[in-house]
Amino acid sequence: MKLGVFTVLFAGRPLEEALDYIASKGLEAVEIGTGGYPGNAHCDPDTLLGDSSKLKAFKQAVESRGLTISALSCHGNPLHPQKPIAKEFHDAFVKTVDLAERLEVPVVNTFSGCPGDHEDAKYPNWPVAPWPNDYQEILTWQWEQKVIPYWSEWGRYASDRNVKIGLELHGGFSVHSPGTLLRLREAAGEAIGANLDPSHMWWQGIDPVQAVQILGRAGAIHHFHAKDTTIDPINVNKHGVTDMQSYSLMLDRAWQFRTVGFGHDLKTWADILSALRLVGYDYVVSIEHEDGLMSVDEGFTKAVGNLQQVLLREPLGQMWWV
Known about the structure:
single chain; alpha/beta; TIM Barrel; 8-stranded parallel barrel; 11 helices; 43% helix; globular; disordered C terminus; IolE/XylAMocC-like; Sugar phosphate isomerase/epimerase; Xyl_isomerase-like_TIM-brl
């Protein structure tokens, strides 16, 4: 496996400066935002698709530093019930797939999206309980009328261009768990897979090792994010895992994102990476930084050090933590 980083955390730096810094840390891959929630500070599809010389220069900037692009990422909600919002996210996705084909990048990461509860809805509706029965009716309508038709069509579009779609399993979106990912994959085809992020498994009460096993045995892991989560034992009993408080209220929240090794120990991360190897995943582990207690540089540096420690020892098959 290769160690990489989601470069959105360095959006304030020029591309080449960010790449130099990433390469200096010994990383081998970058995941680059192309629109949607991550923005396109380092990679504007309109510019690169419209100018072959700029496309070539962009590719050279990455490759000259010994790096590869693991994925292009345009996380958004193309199923948003407000059509102008949905169209903006959809257009970013389509352009990103086109750009991935031109750059020979094998994966585009995004969210599944979440529709409203009927055709004229204004806001997304994420059902989280089977009763009252209204929620089951909403869920059935969403999947049959929106989720499956959309990803069946655009999964084929990506597949025709030799691009796989890595859906990040994130609460608030229709595909948020191994089960929902496999449901969509069965309906829409094998271009659909997971951009598996353990941090979102932990706060939903899902063991990431088991998530790897479930998805990996189906060949459904297209990309992997490295981010940690800590769960407050008191606050979780007050607010539950669907805590709606702002991420900035870290003292009071039930859970919060942390850099790798600061939510779970390195034995746990070694178990996750071992499970990835066991199911045949031999691609990139891409660091994502969203730790409110650390600066970007501190969180990134500590994540790199912790993951390098695990990756350097884990392939030996030894229980180095004993």
